[in-house]
Amino acid sequence: MKKYMMIACEIIEDEIRAIMEQHELSYPILFLPPDLHQLPQKLNEYLQDLINRIDNVDYLILPMGRCGNGTIGLKSERATLILPKCEDCVNLLLSKDSLKVERPKYSMFYTDGWLRNSSSSCHEYARTVEKYGKERADMVMNMMYAGYRYFSLLNTGTYHMENAKKKLQPLVSVLDHIEINELPAPYGLLKKMLTLDFDEENFVMIPPGTAVAEEHFA
């Protein structure tokens, strides 16, 4: 009997646990520290070290996509690696039947899992106020988010939207050009990954001894 394991980012833990419960799945899942997705090189090193230490598993499922090239070069000598053919987990969450989704321009994407992350925008603003004072912090934030127009909350149905909006509101209140909007996020392809329903159009399977390459996400 084939053995499966998933390595996933903590920021999509709510959605993963909802799927696991709904489908009564029980194979092991390792959740990564939440700040790694902002540091692709560190993510790559952490993942490779983890993969090297995993034994007695036939398939390792990585619901991450390219992740800023954080998954490029990953290789297992023992297990087949399975990844979605997309840039990152935003596609997984927005997806219904395909990873080819419309990502609104000038948007930063959030779920409550992202907002709980200590390096998220709302926590970053609070730390900047504490360090520099509100006036300077507001100026810094307006410079940092000058290229954005929307903070898009991905409504996966696994958390309270109003509570998530409240976490963003202190920052939005000092960014005159930013609006909070909601996007339906049925996370269909994440469900397919967890239920082991893999197809060639949306997923790539990397055999043991072969490294993940950029062309796998083309």
Mean pLDDT: 94
SSE order, one letter for each helix or strand? EHEHEEHEHHHEHEHE
What is the 3D form? globular
Query: Which class of secondary structure composition applies to the elements?
Result: alpha/beta
Secondary structure tally, helices: 8
Distance between the termini: 32 Å
Which assembly state applies to the chains in this document? single chain
Q: Which regions have little confidence, pLDDT < 50, spanning 5+ residues?
A: none
**Main sheet summary:** 5 strands, mixed
Helix content: 25-40%
Strand order of the largest sheet: 2-1-3-4-8
How much strand content do the residues show?
15-25%
Number of strands: 8
Radius of gyration: 18 Å
What does this structure look like?
The protein is an alpha/beta fold and 218 residues long. It has eight helices and eight strands. It has helices spanning 13-22, 40-53, 89-94, 112-116, 121-132, 134-144, 161-172, 188-194; strands at 4-9, 29-32, 59-61, 80-84, 107-110, 150-155, 179-184, 203-206. The chain is globular and about 60 Å long. The two termini are 32 Å apart. The mean pLDDT is 94.
Key words describing this protein structure:
8 helices, three-stranded parallel sheet, five-stranded mixed sheet, alpha/beta, 218 residues
Brief summary of the model shown:
With 218 residues, the chain is of the alpha/beta class. It has helices spanning 13-22, 40-53, 89-94, 112-116, 121-132, 134-144, 161-172, 188-194; strands at 4-9, 29-32, 59-61, 80-84, 107-110, 150-155, 179-184, 203-206. The strands form two sheets. The chain has a five-stranded mixed sheet, with helices on one face. Strands 5-6-7 form a three-stranded parallel sheet.
